[in-house]
């Protein structure tokens, strides 16, 4: 096992990135199966990019050129993105066959699900639109950073917003009613028209309260905001389940990080599962709207799971963390370590079991879990195993995002206030402060009512992070190595659709 792990580490150091060491199968999407596909093998697929880019065949070929690395954005004269959103992307410098990032930008209508008779249909604030349909719209932007193939990223870019829509259908009238959400939704067969929101626990369960017994209010207050967060979290889980069900029939390779921003009823909900990042830049202030999920940031969760279920380690890994690999000759000595309960370090006597490979090894961008993957949340990766072994990694990966909320109604926003979403190709070489500097520099050179200004910001962020091709590779302005990864960026003005169109 030690030789297998060393081989895996060597391959990771050679630039395999976040995915597994094995060659991924062919990708499932694009222009259909090509000619000459072998019997029993996945059909090869054409390179595909986000539909909103509306690339011509020639532009698609340029977008797939790892040497030129041309920046792609929605062109003038074509359909503009909602809110005059800016978007730009560039392919990697050769680390994978195609661009494994995907993106989606949609305006989605959530139609009310048929409701139980005599309850929701009688409530006010039904949100009825022309044509008699009841519901509301939400705006949606999302980035998907694929690894070990683009199959999971492509499917998630096409389906995640539909899963979010489905999860919100039960909430259409609840979210439009200012009263607290009901604890339970009634059955379809329920005939009484009483509003369950105003029924006591005892009435709901046909209990008779004893006046002699002090009554304790046991109902927890649940906000409308938390219902939306729960809907988004469940949508991510359903998306992951769909990838698992269809991965064989659709030839879905690898997995992906997912970062989504949903604007609904005056609030932004930013959901992140992976190592992409979102920040708000408001009046020069930087407001983080996500955090990265890596083996280092989720160390204690991973170690605790390994402690509870040691069989997941396959008798090849230890859940303890050490500053470096332990040598057999160090048995019996005391060495620094930390476990699932510790933020600091302490000394312990080295035992035979400590010679196993650490569950988490490496530091920073080189940190890996089980010497295989550098992210700990995302979608897909259902078939991912430790290199040359039968140890599955998926049990340690979470598909649930962290959701942060930003209330647009609480602040007066100017045209220069934006939400920036970017895959790790941007943030690997550019920090939050530098991104904010580029945003302010570019926006000040355009008129506030110029709808192209946000696209220009996105393009400039991508260009500066990619760098310029020189003899020693892609270089930044300071001659440091530029990002060789796929880079995708959304720049969303916080003023909304009514201000800058």
Short description:
The chain is α+β, with helices and mostly antiparallel strands and about 500 residues long. It has 10 helices and 19 strands.
How many distinct beta strands?
19
The secondary-structure class comes to alpha+beta
Order of helices and strands: HHEEEHHHHEEEEHEEEEEEEEEHHHEEE
**End-to-end C-alpha gap:** 60 Å
Topology:
Layout: H1 2-16, H2 57-63, E1 86-90, E2 101-111, E3 135-147, H3 151-168, H4 172-176, H5 201-204, H6 224-246, E4 255-264, E5 267-273, E6 277-282, E7 285-288, H7 299-308, E8 317-318, E9 334-337, E10 346-349, E11 357-358, E12 360-361, E13 368-369, E14 379-380, E15 402-407, E16 418-422, H8 424-427, H9 432-443, H10 453-466, E17 468-470, E18 473-475, E19 487-493
Parallel strand pairs: 8-11
Antiparallel strand pairs: 1-19, 2-3, 3-4, 4-5, 4-14, 5-15, 6-7, 6-16, 9-10, 12-13, 16-19, 17-18
Keyphrases for this structure?
501 residues, alpha+beta, 5-stranded antiparallel β-sheet, 10 helices, 19 strands, globular
Written description of the protein model:
The protein has 501 residues and is of the alpha+beta class. Helix content is 22%, strand content 20%. The protein contains ten helices and 19 strands. The chain has helices spanning 2-16, 57-63, 151-168, 172-176, 201-204, 224-246, 299-308, 424-427, 432-443, 453-466; strands at 86-90, 101-111, 135-147, 255-264, 267-273, 277-282, 285-288, 317-318, 334-337, 346-349, 357-358, 360-361, 368-369, 379-380, 402-407, 418-422, 468-470, 473-475, 487-493. Helix 3 crosses helix 6 (224-246) and helix 9 (432-443) packs across helix 10. The longest helix is centred in the middle third of the chain and has 23 residues, at 224-246. The radius of gyration is 25 Å and the shape is globular.
